[in-house]
Every structure is written in structure tokens, then in C-alpha cells.
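Input:
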Amino acid sequence: MKCQSCRKDAVISSSEGRYCAVHFQKNFEDRVIGTIKKYKLISKGEKIAVANSGGKDSLSLLYILSKYFSKTNRIVSVTIDEGIHGYRNKTIETMEEHCKRLGIDYKIYSYKDFFGKPMDEITRVKEGIPCATCGTLRRYLINYAAMDVGADKVATAHNMDDEAESVLMNLLQNDLGKLLRLGPYSGIVKSDGFVPRIKPFMFIGEKETMLFSILRGIDALHTPCFYAGLGFRGMISRKVKELESFSPGSKREIVTKIIALKEKYGESYGGDAEIGRCEQCGSPASSRLCDACTIKNELAAI
Amino acid sequence: MVKVLVKNINFGEKSVSLDRGNVEELIRKLNTNDDSVILINKKGEIYTKDKKLSEGEELSLVEVFSGG
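Output:
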């Protein structure tokens, strides 16, 4: 198979095109910048916190934001250390190396410091699938971290696969509220204490991000989290990839449709609603306690 | 018929016999799909699914996974 731009051997063939290594990287960066411009994700002068796990996706995002925005914006890296031994400690080493190489300040926030226990211990003492608990705690801490470093926005490396999975999960769980909070610019509910989240990789497939990281020599650990795949998302993730292979372009269709739906109905579904405060930590919350404090209290009682 | 050796961080090494001898057939025989894997030869070249494989060729299979 040949590159559609130069006729050299292609390294990828997908619904997004057929490209050699050089033209794939150019197309990848162009599409990320295109998403940022189209959805006005970053304005000049804003401080952007990159949620950086040290994995392939976030290191690729850090590289691109550093390359294109370091002259007009301040880029900082924030990392959540869930406390998964043999996994997160390794990706943190990689994160530190990359931040130092790119000259980007970084800060690490751990579950142990904020919630009293690392994830390895939480999985032992708390019943249920670890990903659900971990996701809640991580979202809380990413927002806290972004506030702590004074960021205007927090950029996450959620890609088209992640977004398509979230759409299907929320549809199957009949959660229209969460469904309409998806999109390149997260959050339709206005609230102080919430740093808007942006997803510049929203129209980039997971395979493309992995390929980009390999071609760029981003030496990320190419294994998933030990606990990944146990949850509902793991099952949906496998199905989304099967669907894309069977019917190329499916992921983009899913993601594009949900953005159109959000643009049409998002505001009428809570867009102007003011949200309350958690009695314990003061974070935005839809009930008396935020989900993270509820989990924190449960863990303290075990 | 060609036989190739596939290396992977999770399953170690697997020898796979192929009739048509291309990457697409290999992926199918490994019970996965094109969107879930990247195949790289010993020289670091990345293969697309139409690539014809040679007898005895060694490939690394990198699984595409979520997150990091």
C-alpha cells in the first residue's frame, strides 16, 4: 500500500487516509491543530495544564502542545499517581524525562496523599470494579491539580476511541446527562471551581496515537494499566475496535453525531444550570457530597 | 504457505502458518483486528494489512490499548 501523498510505502491505512511515516506525522499534527482551531480550544495567553500520565497519548499531546503553543501559551504538566506499583511508577519516570527534555514544569498529585490509600490498596479493600472508583478519583484530582497550578484549561489526551466508547457506554447506561457532557470541550454545566477540559485528540484514533508515539520515538510503556479491561469500558473498547475494522469510519461517525446532538440539545439539558458545592471539600457537586469525598469517606471507614 | 514468528509482550512468541501470506490473514489468525494492533518487522518497518510476508519472517505485534 502506498502513501496517498508521496507514493512511498504506507505505515497506516484507515478511513483517515493512507500515509507514509513522514506524511502520517504531518497529517496527525495538522488534524490536532485543526481540532484546536475549529472548536477554539486554546486562546492566546491561556495557561494550559496537560493531564500527563507518562503514557503514549499524553506524551504525544505534550509534545504537540509544546511544539505549537509554548510561544503563545504557558504549558504545564500535571500527573496523577494512582499508586499502581510496577506500572504508574514506571510511566512517571518517563513523564519526568519528557518534561525535562521539553523544558516543561510538572507536578505530581497522589491518591495516597489525597485519599489516604494508593489504588493497589483500594482494589484490595473496596468491592467492585476498580476502574469506576479510579476514574472518579482521577477526574477529581485532575481538576484539583489544574486549579492548583492556576490553569485556565486542562488538556487531556482522550482520543476518538475513548470518546466513541464513552458515547456507547452512556447510551447503554441511559445517561443522557453524561452523554451531552462529551465533546472536545467538556462540561455544559457552568461552575466556579471547575477547570474546563479540552480534548485536542478527539478526532485521532488510538492506533494513530500509538503509531505517532512509536514514530516520534516517544518511549512510553506499551502496556495498559493492570486493572484495565476488567470494567465495562474494557469490553466496549474491544467492540469499538472490532466495529472500526469491520466498518472503517464508524468511530468518527459516532463522535461526530454526538457533537451535533450536543450542539442542538446541550444547552437545554442543563447548560445554564448552576451546580452546588460539596460540603466536605467545596468542589462542584450535584449532591451534598461530591463522588470523590463519598469514596474517600468509604475508604477511611474500611 | 509461509510460516512467520510473531513476538508480543503478553503472549511471548507464536509461530503462525499462513495460506495467502499477508498481514491481514495473520491478524485474523491471531484472533484480533487491524484497529487493535501494529505490526513491526525486525528492521523497524511498520506493515499495513496488505503487506506480503516472507517465509521465516519475525514480527513484533504491538497491541493498541487505551490510556497510559
